[in-house]
Structures are given as structure tokens and as C-alpha cells.
Design a protein that fits this description.
The chain crosses the membrane at residues 6-26. Keywords: Membrane, Transmembrane, Transmembrane helix. There is one protein chain. The protein is α+β, with helices and mostly antiparallel strands. It has one domain (41-197). 29% of the residues lie in helices and 30% in strands. The chain is built from 1 helix and 8 strands. The protein has one helix at residues 2-59, and strands spanning 77-80, 84-89, 98-104, 119-125, 131-145, 151-152, 164-172, 183-191. Strands 1, 2, 3, 4, 5, 6, 7 and 8 form an 8-stranded antiparallel sheet that branches. A hairpin with a 5-residue loop joins β4 (119-125) and β5 (131-145).
Length: 199
């Protein structure tokens, strides 16, 4: 009878260990799902914010409230590269021509975040201090096309031939769960500023 009791106790300990391991695994899985869900929601919100600002600015390329101040929209783009662009527009709708420059900073600037790939996206209006956008951006990549739809290859020496462009933005979560970063991607294919067509 004593031998049977010891076996019952050992079996109970083994079964209790299995149940405890299962409960801990479920708890960890639930925590991961919750973390990923809230992280992805935040990513989608960040990406939507970035996309709205970029799309708004890029659609106004070549625009001026007083069109006589901007007679040649073919000169709306001053500089164009794969991860930076400078163009002219009327930012505050006052009839004066302003410049906007977007460019991506290096990964070494964001040492305070655990993600090794995130960077600052800068937005500079005229000569003001750059506005830093730190929403987990890991990629800001531009592709340019001419009036025939052919890709304009880098380096671009004559930005006046650019007729449309493709904008690619990737964001990742700043903090990882179990060393995994969630990501979201936005691509605006063949965005055309209406004012660039007025040539």
C-alpha cells in the first residue's frame, strides 16, 4: 500500500508539471499575441500618418497660389535621389514659392531604440530646422519615371524630365518581442503631381 501511494504522488507531480508547463506556454503565447497585435496596430497608425503627410506634400509639387510666381512647373523638382528629394511648392498657400526636402538619415542616429534598422525621416521646409519623423521608418525609397513611363536612372542630372514617381515606405516596430520585429509597407505607385503636367 505504501508503494502504491508513492506511485500516485509521483504521477500527480508529473501530471501537475505537464499542466503547469502547458499553462505557462499558453500564457506566453497570449502575451506574444497581445504584444504583436498592439504593435501592429501602432505600426499601421504610424504608416498611415507618414503616408498622409508625404502624399499631401508630393501632390502639391509645382503648385503656387499665384501661378505667375511659378511659370515653369518643369523646374518643380530641384534634386532627386533614391532616398531624398527636394522640390518647390506653395506650402502655406500664400503665393510664395517654398522648398520641401525629404531625406532619410543614417541608422547610427537612432541608437536609443533597440531596432538596428530604424532611421529618422527628415522634412525640411525652406531653410528651417528639419522636422524629424521617428515612427520606426526603416525604408524611404523613391523611383522616378519620365513622361513615357520609363524609369529615370540614377544619378539624375536633369530632374525636369521626371513626370511621376513611386514612393516606398517601410516601418518596423521599435521594440521586438522575442527578437522579432513587426513590419508594415506602403507603396504609392506612379503618383503624379497635377502641376507637373502643366508644361
Amino acid at each position: 500500500m505504501g508503494y502504491s501511494t508513492i506511485l500516485d504522488i509521483l504521477a500527480s507531480i508529473v501530471m501537475g508539471g505537464i499542466l503547469l508547463t502547458t499553462v505557462l506556454g499558453l500564457s506566453d503565447s497570449a502575451a506574444e499575441k497581445t504584444y504583436n497585435y498592439t504593435g501592429e496596430l501602432s505600426l499601421q497608425q504610424n504608416l498611415a500618418t507618414i503616408a498622409q503627410v508625404i502624399e499631401y506634400d508630393f501632390r502639391k509639387m509645382g503648385y503656387c497660389a499665384n501661378w505667375q510666381n511659378f511659370p515653369d512647373p518643369s523646374k518643380a523638382i530641384a534634386q532627386a535621389d533614391s532616398s531624398s528629394i527636394k522640390f518647390y511648392t506653395d506650402v502655406d498657400n500664400d503665393g510664395d514659392i517654398d522648398s520641401i526636402r525629404y531625406y532619410l538619415g543614417p541608422t547610427s542616429e537612432l541608437t536609443g531604440t533597440p531596432n538596428p534598422r530604424d532611421r529618422l525621416l527628415y522634412r525640411v521646409v525652406n531653410t528651417t530646422t528639419p522636422t524629424e519623423v521617428n515612427l520606426g521608418i526603416t525604408q524611404f525609397y523613391l523611383i522616378y519615371f519620365d513622361a513615357l513611363g520609363d524609369t529615370v536612372h540614377l544619378p539624375i542630372t536633369n530632374p525636369g524630365i521626371i513626370s511621376s514617381y513611386e514612393i516606398n515606405v517601410r516601418v518596423e516596430s521599435v521594440y521586438a518581442y522575442d527578437e522579432k520585429y513587426s513590419s508594415a509597407y506602403w507603396r504609392q505607385i506612379r503618383l503624379v503631381a497635377r502641376n507637373l503636367k502643366n508644361r
